[in-house]
Design goal:
This protein is mainly alpha-helical. It is 41% helix and 9% strand.
Length: 116
């Protein structure tokens, strides 16, 4: 029986070998673009987004970081506002896309102009 190293690097499938790399290198969609697509869809429906919603929908634990990266990378101005929860007294941020951002995001995501 072959003895394996306890700390051997693993891939997503648990096997040694080629590792998943950045989305540009292996043609996978990066988490930022998945979050952007979700934010776009929610904004088109007239809904706001929160980090909690993003975690529930996208299993995204870095929503605020992804928003920051998207703003810098693509020149977006994603509006946000603080909301105070009256029950707990804690605050959270709501995010949405402005009308200018919707046009830019459509180009970024290669969305087809349709009825909406």
């Amino acid at each position: 029986m072959k003895k394996q190293n306890k700390n051997a690097p693993q891939t997503l499938t648990g096997q040694r070998g080629a590792y998943q790399t950045n989305g540009r290198n292996n043609n996978t969609i990066g988490k930022e673009l998945l979050v952007l697509n979700w934010l776009y869809d929610r904004t088109k429906q007239g809904l706001i987004c929160t980090a909690f919603d993003s975690f529930n929908q996208n299993l995204d634990t870095s929503f605020r970081t992804h928003i920051s990266v998207l703003c810098r990378k693509y020149g977006l101005e994603i509006p946000r506002r603080y909301i105070k929860n009256p029950n707990t007294g804690s605050t959270y941020k709501e995010y949405w896309l402005s009308s200018n951002d919707i046009i830019k995001v459509k180009k970024i995501l290669n969305k087809r102009c349709g009825n909406g």
